[in-house]
Amino acid sequence: MILFDTVAIVGVGLIGGSLGLAMKHHGLVKKIIGIGHRRESLAVALEKGAIDEGYLELDKLMDADVVILATPVNEIKMSIPRIAKIIRKECIVIDVGSTKAEIVKAAEKCRLNFVGCHPLAGMEKRGVENARSALFENSLCLLIAAKKTRKEAVAKVKTLWEAVGAHTKTMDARSHDRVLAFVSHLPHAVAFCLIDCIKPGYLGFAASGLKDTTRISMSDPVVWKDIFLTNRAELLKAIKDFKRSLGRLESFVNARQSKQIAAYLTKSRKKRNAIAC
Prior knowledge:
The protein is of the alpha/beta class. The protein contains ten helices and eight strands. The model has no long low-confidence stretch (mean pLDDT 95).
């Protein structure tokens, strides 16, 4: 089932490359154009089959039916005004960034036919060399439409994600950023801070507990710097709540309150068990 004739992916890394592979695997598109900063990365994407053509120039977007913005979030936000001058009016623009309020605001200002997308299916590894067509299977993709986006565009984007194996849920941008601050951005911040506070000489004693807890601290610093800054207000609220929770545990330990510690840990364990594995 072909949904689009020509799709352009700006930023053919892990997510962009995986989406390209998935669209081709499921026969959803006739041609995929990749736009990137480095010829070497585009060459890898071509060899892997994630794209059919690779270019360094954004001007190649003018023939696309859909443009997928898959660069770091601040770069997405900054590129939107330029892209709006190149693409056709009916072109659907989507992004796959981890924050939405600032990106959707930029898209609405430029009057794009825009649907913000957040596929909750990444990993700590980066680059198109790690892309795989099955990345989105049984995942959740959050959809955030701009105010003037056509309903048929939202429907087509929803069909695209479901065709590559994802479930979809529609949210507004503010709600998205508030929720993701807690379930994604805060955990990354905590993982980075946890590994930072451990003395280097202690790391040789690390077992699976520390490795599992800090796995996401191996994520791309450039990507996460942008995420933290474009969702600054909501992340700071989440950090404040985390510090309050950690402070409660600290006070229980300091006062040697065995029952309170056990109750705290039991409550947290039950909450964690409620998350589907």
